[in-house]
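[Solved] Which block belongs to which protein?

Original post:
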Amino acid sequence: ILYHMKEKILIIWAGPAGLTLWFELLSRAPDAYEIIIVDKDIIVWGLAQTYNHKGNRIDIGGHRFFSKNKRVMDRWFSQMPLQGEWASDYKQLGIQSEVKTGGPDPDKEDLVMLARRRLSRIFWDRKFFDYPLSITRDTLKKFGFVDLFLCGWSYMTAKLKKYDMSNLEGFYKSRFGTRLYHRFFDAYTFKVWGTQPSQISSAWWAQRVKGLNLAKAVRDYFKKIIIWDKQSTNTETSLIGKFYYPKLGPGQMREIVSEKIRQMGGTILLETEFLESHIGLKDGKTIIDSVSYSQKGEVKSFSPDLVISTAPIKFLLNTMKWADLNIQSLGNTLEYRDFITVWILADKLLVSNTSNYQTIDNIIPDNRIYIHDEGTTVGRIQIFNNRSPYMVADPKNIWIGLEYFCAKGDEIWNKSDEDMIQFAVDELIKMELLDMNDLLDGVVRRMENTYPCYFGEGYEQFDSLKKYLDGVDNLFCIWRNGAHRYNNQDHSMLSAMMLADMLIDNTIDRSVLWNVNTEEEYHEGVSDKSDK
């Protein structure tokens, strides 16, 4: 497919994929494209936005800047170099950038990445366990001999059974046994997806935990004992890892990229609702030849050569008034989970740091806590102090985010902000994590279509939707919702980079875009295939 010069491109929604594509095209071929991006929000960067609440910065979802893809890492660090003290780590990554460290320029002292310790844990029965679940001395102590024996027996029994591996229930039972499944997977999975694990495809989760099972966890534990690596058998140190994080939150990356795009002549239309597209023919192929959008109430038209959608496929199909009605109906069966975060500012929590890690005022060292306690609705708790201490106006306070997975219109979604804050506080009190007297402030943020679901008619027949969308010659779908795949921000950026390569090189292969993040390995494992 050959495209003429100075092509007009419309990008629907300004998340990491949309902005990355925009930046790639304008920086590499500035005279070839005229690009307009529309977004209904008041700021760009989608789910990776950062909000400022009275000096306390809010990261929706709690992002980590780490990828096994060197090209993505290069892009991040070319925009925001590592803080000076981490220069050696930066060089070891082999990342090439014009700026090697966060220099002494006071105007740029905040435009740096921090290298942060990664620690996530599971909270169950008022106890902390490793995430992912592993066997350590601390785990053995918390389970007790009888419980351990029963878990082991349950696992051995499971190995004699044949489970349906296409769904999450069978997938997890076969790897951990029924007892551990009901303790650490069943209730939490229902919290996230709002449906039983037996009804959810194991496709994504199988990728996330490929190779992880109880037998492997036991083997790893005894291997550590044999080599007598005392440190590696400690609960906290067994999870040692590193990720990178903008000093003032992921929104800094958005600010830098969007400003550079504006300097290159790009147009960002915020608070703009994409309305509909109109069909046309070009060289005998179906194309979108015009679109309309409403910018603060004023309806405008645009005739693009290319349309790049990062919006949910359900939304996209409903704006295609000319689309096949059966395809539209199928698209409307695609399901999504929505998301509410309640941020709580407190003097302190009732749990303290019992690890060997030093933290400000001895707060617990976790970045993220997965809440597996039955009888609670909260799914995860982010501790923003441990992502960057600069996220908190007063580092002596603790700034946490309680994450609730829901559906727009359900009971929890319809709660007022005041009721939602009180609901979150009550859950913290119930879990013995907070004393009401230590509460200082709270704020609520709701996000729609956060997680594409791996169940339902639309997902089961997704190939039909892909085939139909691929039949529109000048339309490309990328990002998490654009591909209906639970991608992280690095996968979203990578899909945009790949599309930019295709457009510039005139080598279009849509199957490559649909298959980003389908590799059978955990996404945070480092790969030598840096550009693939």
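(Second protein starts here: sequence line, then its structure tokens.)
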Amino acid sequence: MDLADLKKLVAHVESMRNRRLKEWRELSALFLPSRGMFPGEEKDSVRKRRLFNNAGQRTLSKAAAGMTAAMTPADYAWFKHQFALPGDRELTGAGQFVDEIDERIRKTLAAGGFYDAIHAFNKELLCFCCALLYVETSNRTAARYSCPTCGTWAVALDSDRTLACVIHRLTFTVVELIEHFGSEKVSEATRKKKDSEPYASVEVVHVVMKRRDRDEAKHDNKNLPFASYWYEDANSDGLLAESGYHEMPYMFTVWEDARGIYGTGPGDLALSDQKAIESYELRKCVGLEKTIDPPWIAPGTGKDRLRTDAGAINSVSMANSQQFIPLFPGGFIQGIQHVQQEIQSISGRIDETLMATIFAAMPLDQRPKDMSATEYLDRRRKAAQLMGPAISAYEPNVLSRVIERTYGILDRAGFLPLAPESVGEFAYLDVSYESPMSQMLSQTGAEAIQAFLQVALPLVQADPQALDKVDVDQIIDEVSRRFNVPASVIRSDEQVAALREERTRQQAAQEQASQEQAVMKQIAELGNTSTQGTIAGEVLGSTQGAQTGGTANG
């Protein structure tokens, strides 16, 4: 695409997003002032808004922290690769191979700043109901992760609702821009600022989209599946760079697929409650101020309008009165108490709406002492179900694509291990999730196996042949997989078969040795017994020769 076509595309995609900017700006001010960048705002300043009660901000921080710990805990193996076909999983060395891949991806995620980026992503997803993540290559850490903030990007989806185009606006200084793209690529206006204004800001537009026309036989940057274009927004003489990606470097999802591309979610639902808290908190403050310093009525002949602000004095003609009296003798304490109760009620609703009660109210890794394991697991499953469609979109649209992109970067850099020789040419890997939130649901299968065994074991004791119906090896494989047991702990089917064959051979050898020992013992016992005229005598005679005296020992 040439620059003119790109600008038309950018204008169209951003026009579809601009309908939400006003709402996002309000959400940012009330819930997340540290995130969001909207037209007319300074990049490095924190949005300031006078709030009487920041309950929404506190709840959002708690919910986002809980969501990060529940979905992608940094100190926990929250994802796991395995071969798609069960037969491939049981091959010797296959488990160790995928464990090594997982370990290298985890190290890359930690080194590249993934956990900071995904925490910011979760904040924006809860607040703005949609969020964007970016994965780029890095010479230092192989991959680097960031969360472009709301208001700086716009997206377009294809007919399958997958990400087809991303428009991302970034700010460079003049020096940074020249160092990144080269002096010959930047505009003439930018080159002129190099000496006079080297640190002036320059807005740059990055466009990533599915490449429409490419030669799949070629593997250069201009024939990769996803095209990348950079240009200066204000003074563009041409493209700063044109390149490409093997995978879409941006990951996008919405909390709930509604209201067009950018969806809806907890932030939209909690907005009215946060506004109500602001109103009630203001009234409470006014009531407290008037209780502490009430307006007064004083003897006099003033005819001015009655003043009700704190500390005001109203001159009013009163018969037989020469003293100051409060304008509101009953005070405001009772009303303030009712307002405070309403504020607490609304705060509880915000906690529920922003999912803080799910993620943080009940720890996901610790069962209360007074709660049975069955009840605890049941509550955890119900809590996971309340996440609604968010989890079903979060894992495939974000986590799977992050892992796929990271895998591709490491593979192309030669940082992944070679597959064992036992693995076939067409074997491929799947990724599953073992985070606390995912285990709420995945452990259901392990509990079903446990319940089955509780019923089956008494039947096996009554009739041992019933055990033939149970594949114990497969039970161990299924339970270990659901509980995320390292592959190095569980032997492959090949290793188990070889171990059992060796055990059978040893048992056969032991049985043969025992039989030989029994025969020799019988021979020794027969040595002190007369065998003349018996079959034993004939046998011994044939093996030991004729014996004098008709006995084995003569």
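Accepted answer:
You had them paired correctly. Confirming on the second one: The chain has a mean pLDDT of 82.
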